[in-house]
Amino acid sequence: MRKPIGWIAALADFEAKGIPCVLVTIIEEKGSTPRNTGTKMLVSADSLKLTIGGGHLEHKAVEIARQMLKEGSHQPKVERFSLGASLGQCCGGATVLLFEPLVQNNIPVALFGAGHVARALVPLLASLPCEVRWVDSRAHEFPELIPAGVTRVVTDDPLDEIDAMPPGSYFIVMTHNHPLDLELTERILARGDFDYFGLIGSKTKWAKFRHRLIAKGHTPEAISRVRCPLGLSQVKGKLPAEIAISVAGEIIAIYSAKADAQEASTLRLVQP
Known about the structure:
- The chain has helices at 7-16, 55-71, 116-126, 158-164, 178-191, 203-215, 220-223, 240-270; strands at residues 21-30, 40-43, 48-49, 77-82, 94-102, 107-112, 130-136, 150-154, 170-173, 196-199.
- By secondary structure, the protein is of the alpha/beta class.
- It is elongated.
- The longest helix has 31 residues, at 240-270.
């Protein structure tokens, strides 16, 4: 007889195949219900693993989970169902379901400039959960081997790359050209929907940029979101590798804090 598949093994199967899914968990039950608290089901766009009891409840749960996948939702949600009144199931109790999107979510990063620091930084970003677009107009500055997860973009119109990035992107500007750095900074600030923006440069450079940005109408609140000098303040080194490690550390700190906030949000959802 074949042994039933547990939800951890089922999730591992989805993850190994790179398939986004939603974990549906019964977190509360009242009265007569088809399954007990803790029962789980995994829903992908076109398949289903395990069950929370079948019937109209499961049909509705699958519908909600697939809509979350379609919308690209990353936030968990809680839904309450009255099995008798709203779903017409004979058991007649009530069930609360937690929906948790489990999407393999590589962070979109746009890195402008292919100088010494960028060449030291890119392999570090490639080893993290990042999807990197590496942008420069000088094809000869890129190394022959580009790490997996990194797309080389040779263009004379780098501003277009900013517009093409999704909301919540991470922007890193370290070109060889200060006027271009300022143009990129203005365009990124105009978007305003980034999760991180780091600009390479000294405090003197940033003071000049800040003065010009204010003169062009950018608000102090928007300007304060720019990390310049970029990287962890505790790292004082000037070598390209030292700066690269500092920047990678700052990026890790940003996305780790966001993940912690999402986890705290999930805990608040499931608390009675």
